[in-house]
Amino acid sequence: MAELATTAPAFVEMAHQIVWASVATVDDEGRPRSRILHPYWEWNGTALVGWIATGPTPIKRAHLERQPNVSVNYWAPDQNTCVAECEASWQNDLETRQRVWDFFTSTPEPLGYDPRIIPNWTGPDVDAFGVLRLVPWRLRVFPGSVLLTGGQVGEVLSWQSSTAS
Q1: Topology of the domain comprising 4-160
Q2: Span 98-124, pLDDT tens digits
Q3: For residue 128, how many other CB atoms are within 10 A of its CB?
Q4: Model-level pTM?
């Protein structure tokens, strides 16, 4: 098991290159539901936090109210994959919503974009715009080179929080 200080930067680099992730929640019968979302990650040297601008739909709200964990899975055609298993929470304060909005509008594409392209997202203060905060408890970074060379090139990194079961 690698240290967070090794795994987190590798995870952020790969995730930000891939950009789009399949994010799964779980319904009240334990069935997963996935959707494609666009997270960004902040690594400050000791903690990793992810942010997703997303519509706070009744389904997402109900799933996260019952089970506040999500799986965030990235895949690229070169077989690079990385996964973050996270605790997710809605961040409804305007300061956080504005910060996330500004991040996406000020960051170059493909990680950055204009949130106004989403219907009804006219600004960070509208009800249709929501922000999810992700705190990972498990990370895995699997370079495609490991798969394609039979383990001769690259290294798989895994990290798990000491409080995760």
Answers
A1: Pnp Oxidase; Chain A (2.30.110)
A2: 999 999 999 999 999 999 999 999 999
A3: 13
A4: 0.94
